Amino acid sequence: MLKRLYLLLIAVFILSAAKAQTADDVYNKYLDFNLARLQGETSKAMDLGQEIAPNSDKLTDKARISFYYSIGKLYEDDSQTGKALSYYEKVAAAVPDYYVVQRALGYIYAKQAEAIADKLNAAKSDPAENKRLTALYTEAVKKALPHLEKAQACDPTDETLARIKVLYKNIGDTKAASTLKARLAAMAKNCIDLLSDQ
């Protein structure tokens, strides 16, 4: 019995050591992930990304942030916005001036607000449900606006500006809408358009 237990412990140790990835292993997978992504091998890149994700803490800080953005983009392009959102949020927290991820977050949250607006329009005859959905809509809009504003400040587009104005109008925030130009000018001073993994 003791011999079997000893053999079992050795087997468990060997298996866990074999599964544990070194920093070099993770980085090599990260390089393969980037290559697959750049070559348009989306399925392979997603598989590698899923292998890297639990061990992403073994990447350097910059490589980890670049990985988070890249895997988030793959998920977004695959219509898995829930998964994309969690990675994008990590990038935005680490590099708040990276406006590319801010735009992605802004549009994801704006899309969520639009889905709530559709339900809101259908619930006009139910005052309690209408009130609940209005609160959810306002919350989603308030999540979207800071991200959209940062993107607009750094890379202005008519589409994003129009969306920002409509969202402020929809929640009735005329005060914030009136100070938009000044906020955009202040935010435009700190913009990052490329992430480096070095």
Automatic annotation (TrEMBL):
Family matches, as SUPFAM superfamilies: TPR-like
Keywords: Signal, TPR repeat
Signal peptide, first to last residue: 1-22
The keyword Signal belongs to this UniProt entry's keyword annotation: yes
TPR repeat feature ranges: 65-98
InterPro entries: TPR-like_helical_dom_sf, TPR_rpt
Record's protein name: Tetratricopeptide repeat protein
UniProt organism field: Mucilaginibacter segetis
